[in-house]
């Protein structure tokens, strides 16, 4: 019997309209990001030692202004500015540039993440890769698409055939690193890098597992409708659904069998 993290949910009323607007937001962000990419943009370091650029701030400001103009009664949670109305029925969760370190070093595997969270559940998710022109869109109950074409996760159900990704080994604590290493020892292939792009590759069947930690809601909320819409499973390391209040541990898998196997290996470090 499927658990709450994997059970299918019907598309909500208005989800298509939210998805259309999310696409407009991604269209708005893309040229702004491109105008800064591979230029001598200044970098500042925040208190948590993460970088921020003028591009991050410009994109988030544009997204917030567009949301306020279209849906003034909706909340917004983003990386660079204070949250507004996150207790409202609809909250937009945005990351202007997921993968700022990739962006600032000229690597095109970064993205803009946009999620519409309705009554606490991510209903719409967009992973847009501005430098590459790629876009994944997921709508709860209505599937996922890559560049407008339906996409599907792989059928790999055993760890021994799985292709595993994580953005960086630096994101793990010592305990998490040991659990990740135990999992990595059992898979067919382990790679680092990719940021949000790796989750899109999972939705398209090219990657089978993505395991990460130390993430924030704006890093993962948009991923949920994309991964689930493509047939995958995405939860925290305990197997609980991801919400705005979730911790930073995230595991995405191509299917329920692979997800269960990954959880077993990660259990010793699950928060």
Number of helices: 8
CATH architecture field of the largest domain: 2-Layer Sandwich
Across the major sheet, the strand order is: 3-4-5-6-7-8-9
Q: Based on CA inertia axes, which overall geometry fits?
A: globular
Q: What is the SS-derived class?
A: alpha+beta
What would CATH call the class of the largest domain? Alpha Beta
Mean pLDDT: 94
> What's the end-to-end separation, in Å?
24 Å
User: In percent, how much strand structure appears in the residues?
Assistant: 15-25%
- Poorly predicted ranges: 1-9
Tags for this model:
14 strands, globular, D-Maltodextrin-Binding Protein, domain 2, alpha+beta, disordered N terminus, Fructose-1,6-Bisphosphatase, Chain A, domain 1, seven-stranded mixed β-sheet, 271 residues, 31% helix, 25% strand
What is this structure, in a nutshell?
With 271 residues, this protein is α+β, with helices and mostly antiparallel strands. The protein has helices at 15-36, 54-70, 100-104, 174-184, 197-203, 217-220, 223-229, 256-266; strands at residues 43-45, 51-53, 75-78, 90-98, 111-118, 121-129, 134-139, 143-146, 149-150, 163-166, 189-192, 209-212, 233-235, 250-253.
């Amino acid at each position: 019997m499927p658990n709450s993290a994997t059970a299918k949910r019907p598309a909500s009323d208005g989800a298509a309209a939210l998805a259309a607007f999310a696409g407009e937001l991604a269209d708005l962000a893309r040229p702004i990001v491109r105008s800064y990419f591979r230029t001598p943009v200044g970098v500042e370091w925040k208190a948590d030692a993460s970088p921020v650029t003028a591009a991050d701030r410009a994109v988030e400001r544009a997204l917030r202004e567009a949301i306020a103009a279209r849906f003034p009664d909706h909340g917004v949670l983003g990386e660079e500015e204070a949250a507004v109305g996150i207790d409202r029925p609809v909250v937009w969760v945005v990351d202007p540039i997921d993968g700022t370190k990739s962006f600032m070093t000229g690597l095109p595997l970064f993205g803009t993440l946009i999620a519409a969270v309705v009554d606490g559940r991510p209903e719409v998710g967009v992973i847009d890769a501005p430098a590459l022109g790629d876009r994944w869109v997921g709508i709860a109950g209505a599937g996922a698409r890559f560049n407008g074409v339906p996409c599907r996760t792989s059928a790999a159900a055993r760890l021994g055939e799985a292709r595993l990704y994580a953005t960086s080994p630096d994101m793990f604590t010592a305990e998490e690193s040991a659990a990740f290493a135990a999992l990595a020892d059992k898979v067919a292939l382990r790679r680092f890098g990719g940021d949000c792009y790796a989750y899109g590759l999972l939705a398209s069947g090219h990657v089978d597992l993505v395991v990460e930690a130390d993430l924030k809601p704006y890093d993962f909320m948009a991923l949920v409708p994309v991964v689930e819409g493509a047939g995958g499973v995405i939860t925290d390391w305990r197997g609980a659904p991801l919400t705005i209040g979730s911790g930073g541990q995230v595991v995405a898998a191509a299917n329920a069998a692979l997800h269960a196997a990954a959880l077993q290996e990660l259990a010793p470090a699950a928060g």
